[in-house]
């Protein structure tokens, strides 16, 4: 009886110690996990809304501008202008229609604007312009010129701004083209990108000027001006016109169905202006091959990429340096629900070094990812070491280290960055111009590598020994306690 009772207990204690030792062994297997992953940041369109975001350069890096030979050089410093946003609100007669959750369109817009004003960042320069707020529908001559500043762009007195919005009543016509021109004047000039947010329920009924032509005109002037449109009516003609305005300036269009959706989207756009456009992206044109791709230096770049296209850029990385790159692609028009973005770093022979992906994240405003890669070792030309990709569903980043083919005698390697997308337009959607792409590049000193491995365990040896000892001690104590309990039970 005693033998039969003690053996299972001893076996259980031994198995417990063995299991804990095995667990400690697994815990003591650090590999590349000790290498820091890419840091988290948008854009464009960055987008605004907030799952994990890709690596961004240090604040000390300066924006780069491409020169005539395709090489992008620093243009002298980061823009420090405060973000500027001008909200253009339609107050035409049709805004009295009550078809948004049983409320009028104007009341929904007023509530959303109040909430946006309450949430404004302290440094934001925010203004409000109206259209159709003064002259009645019976006076089309003056009504089609009816656009005026309700609250000037600048540091916002929130009480005054909300009071001004509360006094608005649906009145007149819809001169969107003139309102866009007026809003561009409200925002003034400067290096930082400025944003117009247009909230309307109808197409321009006062053309000329046609609002699409005005948007193209503003884009052609190189004013760093983005127009985002939000439609409160679900008419195909209205949708097409608002899409046209947004596409012409690299902005976005949103079909608004609820008051909360309107509030969230406007807040998102204001936040995007605050976070993304302190430094204006330099325009750059990627190519289809690494051999003739533009060479980028640390900075922020803007490009446009067609649906399902590949764009290639080059970055020079010296031995002992680390390349950090992030890309954001903004679906600024209606696209199919399944899409993804891929950012690859390859060597001169086309062999992949590392990648980052974003697919299936469910975001509708921006798809973004990032990567980092360290050029380590000597300056000799050796076979490149391909890092295992670290990617998956959602915003992902990849990291890796190695030496690469194409490293010169000065220790400089040309790394090719390839931006790919799998967006597909919905039927009837224009494919030109391409989707807005924002690429961020930084080259910094390589992160220190973890201590050399000891039989593949690295620093896990210490943890292994501690956990093994604890496991054995736990097994022995469990066995002794079990024997004592059995002895007590037999005596009683």
What distance lies between the first and last C-alpha atoms, to the nearest angstrom?
15 Å
Strand arrangement in the largest pleated sheet: 7-6-3-8-9-10
Described by the principal axes of the CA atoms, the overall outline is extended
SS content category = alpha/beta
Q: Stretches where pLDDT falls below 50 for ≥5 residues?
A: 1-9, 24-79, 377-395
% residues in beta strands? 25-35%
Q: Sheet with the most strands?
A: 6 strands, mixed
Mean pLDDT: 75
In short:
By secondary structure, the chain is of the alpha/beta class. It is 28% helix and 27% strand.
Please characterize this protein's 3D structure.
By secondary structure, this protein is an alpha/beta fold. 28% of the residues lie in helices and 27% in strands. The protein is built from nine helices and 22 strands. The chain has helices at residues 2-27, 105-118, 140-143, 158-166, 176-187, 211-220, 236-249, 259-276, 460-491, and strands spanning 64-66, 72-74, 84-90, 98-100, 103-104, 125-131, 147-155, 194-200, 225-231, 253-255, 282-283, 295-296, 299-305, 310-318, 321-329, 340-346, 352-359, 367-375, 394-395, 397-402, 412-421, 435-445. The protein has a six-stranded mixed beta sheet, sandwiched between helices. A six-stranded mixed beta sheet has the order 11-13-22-15-18-20, with no helix packed on it. A hairpin with a 2-residue loop joins strand 4 (98-100) and strand 5. Helix 1 (2-27) runs antiparallel to helix 9, helix 5 runs parallel beside helix 6 and helix 6 (211-220) packs parallel to helix 7 (236-249). The longest helix has 32 residues, at 460-491. It is extended and about 105 Å long.
């Amino acid at each position: 009886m005693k033998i039969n009772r003690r053996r299972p207990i001893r076996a259980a204690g031994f198995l417990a110690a063995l299991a804990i030792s095995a667990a400690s062994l697994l815990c003591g297997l650090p590999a590349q996990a000790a290498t820091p992953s890419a840091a988290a940041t948008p854009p464009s369109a960055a987008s605004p809304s907030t799952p994990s975001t890709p690596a961004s350069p240090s604040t000390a890096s300066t924006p780069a501008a491409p020169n005539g030979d395709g090489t992008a050089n620093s243009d002298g410093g980061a823009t420090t202008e405060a973000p500027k946003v001008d909200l253009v609100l339609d107050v035409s007669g049709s805004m009295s229609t009550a078809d948004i959750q049983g409320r009028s369109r104007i009341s929904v817009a007023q509530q959303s604007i109040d909430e946006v004003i309450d949430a404004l960042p302290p440094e934001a320069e925010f203004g409000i312009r109206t259209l159709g707020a003064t002259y009645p529908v019976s006076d089309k001559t003056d009504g089609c010129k009816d656009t005026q500043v309700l609250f000037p762009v600048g540091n916002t007195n929130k009480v005054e701004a909300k009071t001004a919005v509360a006094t608005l009543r649906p009145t007149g016509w819809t001169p969107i083209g003139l309102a866009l021109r007026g809003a561009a004047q409200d925002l003034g000039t400067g290096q930082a990108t400025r944003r117009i947010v247009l909230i309307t329920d109808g197409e321009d009924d006062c053309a000329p000027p046609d609002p699409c032509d005005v948007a193209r005109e503003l884009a052609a002037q190189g004013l760093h001006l983005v127009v985002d449109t939000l439609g409160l009516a679900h008419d195909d003609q209205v949708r097409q016109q608002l899409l046209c305005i947004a596409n012409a300036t690299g902005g976005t269009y949103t079909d608004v169905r609820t008051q909360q959706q309107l509030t969230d989207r406007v807040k998102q756009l204001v936040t995007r202006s605050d976070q993304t456009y302190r430094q204006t992206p330099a325009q750059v044109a990627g190519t289809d091959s690494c051999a003739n791709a533009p060479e980028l230096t640390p900075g922020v770049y803007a490009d446009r990429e067609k649906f399902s296209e590949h764009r290639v850029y080059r970055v020079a990385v010296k031995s002992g340096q680390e390349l950090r790159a992030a890309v954001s692609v903004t679906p600024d028009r209606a696209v199919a629900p399944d899409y993804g973005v891929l950012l690859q770093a390859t060597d001169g022979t086309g062999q992949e070094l590392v990648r980052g992906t974003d697919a299936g994240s469910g975001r509708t405003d921006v798809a973004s990812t990032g990567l980092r890669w360290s050029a380590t070792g000597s300056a000799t030309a050796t076979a490149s070491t391909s890092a295992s990709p670290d990617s998956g569903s959602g915003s992902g980043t990849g990291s890796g280290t190695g030496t690469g083919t194409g490293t010169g005698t000065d220790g400089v390697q040309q790394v090719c960055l390839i931006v790919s997308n799998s967006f597909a337009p919905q039927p009837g959607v224009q494919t030109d111009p391409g989707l807005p792409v924002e690429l961020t590049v930084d080259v910094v000193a390589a992160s220190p590598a973890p201590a050399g491995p000891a039989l593949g365990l690295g620093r896990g040896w210490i943890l292994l020994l501690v956990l093994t000892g604890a496991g054995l001690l736990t097994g022995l104590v469990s066995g002794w306690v079990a024997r004592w309990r059995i002895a007590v039970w037999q005596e009683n």
